[in-house]
Amino acid sequence: MSEDNYGEKKNIGQQYVTIRLGGQLFGLQIDRVQDVFMPENFTFVPLTNQKIAGVLNLRGKILTAIDLSKVFDVSAVNETNSQRPAVSVIHGTESYVFLTDIIGEVVTLNEELLEPNPVNLNSDWAKASIGTYRLENELLVILDIDVLIEDLLSQDAA
Amino acid sequence: MDDLLSEFLTETNESLEVVDNELVRFEREPDNAQILDNVFRLVHTIKGTCGFLGLPRLEMLAHAGETLMGCYRDGAPVSDDGVSTILASIDRIKDILAALEETQEEPEGSDEELINKLLNLAGVVTDADAVKEENAPVQEEAIEQELDILETEKEEIKEGGGGTLGRELKPGEVSLDDLEAAFRDAEGPDLSLPKESKKEISSKAKKPKGEGSLANQTIRVNVNTIENLMTMVSELVLTRNQLLEISRRHEGNEEESEFNTPLQRLSNVTGELQEGVMKTRMQPIGNAWGKLPRIVRDLSVDLGKPIDLDMVGAETELDRQVLELIRDPLTHMVRNSADHGIEMPDVREKAGKSKEGTIKLSAYHEGGHIIISIADDGKGLPTQKLKEKILDLGLASENELESMSDNQVHKYIFHPGFSTAEKVTSVSGRGVGMDVVRTNIELIGGVIDLKSVEGSGTTVTIKIPLTLAIIPALIIETAGERFAIPQLAVSELVRVNLGSESRIEKIKDAEVLRLRNSLLPIVRLTSLLDMDKKKPVADKNNLQISNSTFVVVTQVGTRSFGIIVDEVFHTEEIVVKPMSNMLKEVSMFSGTTIMGDGSVIMIVDPNGIAQAVGSSLDSDAHEQSKETSTKKEDDKISLLIFEAGTKDPKAVPLSLVTRLEEFDVERVECSGDRNMVQYRGRLMPLVYVSEKTKDKQEGSISLLVFSENERVMGLVVDRIIDIVEDRLELQVDSGREGFLGSAIISGQATEVLDVGYYLPKAFSDWFERKEQIGSGTRKLLYAEDSQFFRNMIVPVLIGAGYDVTAVEDGIEAYDLVKGGEKFDIVVTDIEMPNMDGFTLTRYLNEDKNAAHWPVIALSAFVGPAAKARADQLGMFDFIAKFDRKGLLDALKRSEGVIDVEVAA
Lengths: 158, 904
Hints:
CATH architecture of the largest domain in chain B: Up-down Bundle
Distance between the termini of chain A: 44 Å
CATH topology of the largest domain in chain B: Four Helix Bundle (Hemerythrin (Met), subunit A)
Shape of chain B: flat
Number of domains of chain A: 1
CATH class of chain A: Mainly Beta
Oligomer: heterodimer
CATH architecture of chain A: Beta Barrel
Strand order of the largest sheet of chain A: 8-1-2-10-9
Number of strands of chain B: 35
Largest sheet of chain B: 6 strands, mixed
């Protein structure tokens, strides 16, 4: 695909797992991604932040699932959580699960080509992303996993 | 931190703990050379490592300690002073280590004094040549000693080799090879020092060879490794459960038999594995007791009471997590026993006990729990003093206290209020921090109990779960979600039916359940968890639950409450997993767990619920009002709001009401011209606030039950609305009979019921209605021991325009006056505990500030003798308790007196 060609010229660079949320393409640094799976058996956790979809059991580990479409305020393609592909990422010593709309392929991109976010980008988005790549057909927003999770951690405490 | 350093710290801290205990033992058995050998070896190791790591301060201190111990080992007589000094130096080493851990550097400071003392002790008591050198001035000596150490270490290593030193083989040992290398490099300095004594030392230190091989069988494993292992095993257990589930479903199929055997094997192996891993988490409880002998020894020296600490069952194992959590409470309780429980030796002798007090600490397993008991043979809890304190603090009324067993009274020492007051120590002995102990124990799902016999000792028993990792829990469902409630908090399950005896009733929004003889506040898990919206709206406002529901009766500490859930499934052993950081803020949950089917469920935290109950329900307003009523009356009090006759709200102080009841109208019987109901096997006269209510022919009536002593009456109202906390400030006098006036309560004009008007309607002798309400704010001091009368008279007095301070007895009243509080008038009961009204009056007469205050006596007994005594004391008036009119008249008359006094 075109995305691949873009980075293949040098064949060095950062690899990203691409996900789609409400039509927008996002990228997650691959070294932070542990698993890609279809979740089942969500457990709703009362009294928590709306953005937290619940907890689930991933091979014996109980992980907190974050609904990315709620974080970025876009409407999810599938309303049912269990129909939404999920990706588990590591933050510090804990793992979290991101619910997405579509999980795409892995792209390799030269980090030098990462551009800062446009200044007119919604501040919520800008805060949670490191920068943007110009792909041939569209733009790829790279997520800042740490900021995103830290933000939720502090929101919950508030 | 440097690996070597951190390892040194862990190891040294462990060694020091052993040294502590061994020394205490040694003090008792000074002839036991093995103990001394052991201690000597440990200190020696510490010294050696310190030298290697370049920690001169520690090294010198350890060396001095070692020198003194060397003397003892060589046969010098052991003195108390010596052991104390060695212990002091060990403490100093601990301090330095703690600082070292923080800053990774030795703290500044001098140990010269301590070292000198150690060396002096060594010098004075010995003549062996081993200590000759120590008699030289310390400063110069230091360098030489350092060399000594190097020398000794070297000798030792050469002789014994790295692995067979004969002391316990610990990871720190790894550094020995390094040590050797280091020493080789350090070769050179003066080797001409006499070696004989050191050789002797090192050879002696190696004696108990047997230990080495035993110690070899243990390894040190990082806690995280075990935790991970545990997680994996839990995972395996769950997978096995799933497999078993599948196999059950396919029962009878062809494939079944094929799978069965290996599955069975897998099942067994998994079970064993689980058990095995659980075992690795277990540690003997002795680890938590490690510091106790030393603490008791120090206390025993400080307090001058000989105390024997007897520890039984130190090998009883429990989860290390639990172990950590009970360490401090245990220490606290043992300290309490030693400090307050055990009497001084002369007192003990008089009481016919042995001079030496005994504290017995024991631990054993009992069905999934571990029972720890701390028993002392001391003086026990002084029940009478406790009772006084309880009254003082207003935790219970006299009547309540009377009906309590000693045991119940003793339990009050766990009450939070009990510990805060410093006085408790002087009055009752125990109590400081016992509530903290209880909280800590309960936090880990434990139960604490106490038995005390005055004069012969106290036993505190703690029952705690073996492990926090796996707990039995009740699986319930609410709003379509399953939750687990720890079984330990659940006292019973009640099925509530519409028609059944146990039904849920409402006081405003507060739901309550009649459970046997008490009203149980009820919370809905759905509303607590804010899951109402998930349920159909029609259900929400429906008080009477459509069909049967379950109430999980939960007890947290002394508080009981019911949790309404939709469904109760079963009890299951669940593996508790910690909550994700993101969810930690939700106090309603304590953790998560994975069910057999692989789904995750949340574990409800009873403590969290209890807190939420406290804030959302006013149902323990009864208790709160008790506390507030003794305070100054501008504090908020609990008021029961109801409707009677009209829709306007009416209020009555809740503390006056004994119970709220509801009766079917049909049960109302007529006797003469009065209505009555049969209540608890007796006839209770009914008084109607509004005549309209009397005509009610069907349905039920709401009653406020008032009782004192033998008399019980029911006041019929239309509807009970709410219980609120508010100030009772009468703003408008009521023209209506039966009401004191109106006040703003919860932002609404509310008529305040004059209970005193209705009571005589039921029993004509109860007392007469009060009449006139005075004006002006005068400060009135009211001493009355009976809660009931305080609650009854105070509103009257406030109604009459006084700023009332109510106290419980003469002493309290006099304390206030002594403290400089000024009053215009004093109203006092005559019969009171501690100091009666007459005595109070006499004291007041002697006080220059208070001498001119008119004193009105209120008494239940108005005899001529008492009247004469009152006159003699110059009391303003003497009035019967039930005579409100008389009281108000007297107050009015007294105003003239006050004015005159003020004018003069």
